[in-house]
Amino acid sequence: MNRIAVIDLGTNTCNLLIAEYGKHNYNLLYQGKEVVKMGRGGIHKNLIREDGIRRAVHAILKHQEKITKYRAGKTIAIATSAVRDANNRGEFCNTIFTETGISLQVISGEKEAELIFKGVLLAFDDEPGNSLILDIGGGSNEFILCRRKQIIWKESFPLGVARIIERFPPSDPITKTEIETIRNYFDENMNSLWTAVSGKKPDRLIGCSGAFDTLVDLLDETEPGTKLRKQQEICPDDFQKIYERLIHSTTEERMQMKGLEQLRQEMIVPAIILIDLVVKKAGIPKIVQTDYALREGVLHECIRTL
Q: Cα separation of 145 and 46, whole Å?
């Protein structure tokens, strides 16, 4: 069996997956994450500040301890929206390499969407059906419209929740006017999505990681990161209950909610507004959550190349 470590350096978190795999099977050995919040104070200027760079270096060094412990033979490190859009991207990547020895692959939004799709294929045993896949990130949101094993349409929108919060700082709790402003901003900047789903109504929305993990953790009242899920359906009534609960809550109230980790307490509000908009405007009857996303997509590619 081959053993690989996949680092996914996102805008808010630096995620690690360690797995062993063969031609027809795989086994997830370890999953973990470190908070980096690289968008804080700079994402609206396409800049990663020095404190964000330091958090990224620290996160990768922490992950390297696990990579060494599990004796992964190969490490692939992917950087996404915050890094690819940063004016100081070269300086950032050089610093990461100098201090950790890790060479980052900075991927395009299209490649990010493709890897997310491949991660979903791994979770759904190559049969995701007629679905719209959504991965909500800090810097960008990836949408993939698929039918069985084929991508019909995909796009990465630079409308991640860290960007939204920087652009539209919410009150505590968020007001109705602010909700409408954020909702309209999403709506007006995703015309290509509405065109893509028009006449091709998906049977379900497949939500990958991040905000969707938080939704099911809140529903299950489970401590974040303690329950691994390949697939979990969220019925419309349950989604609406969580939506109403979150949208009317203060930061302090969210801090007390079982299943809501500190990292998501601010980010979950614009995320839930986006999910609600997509489900209602596209007329999608159900939501299915999966833990599988970009990292598992890299694993899927490795398996298929054997």
A: 28
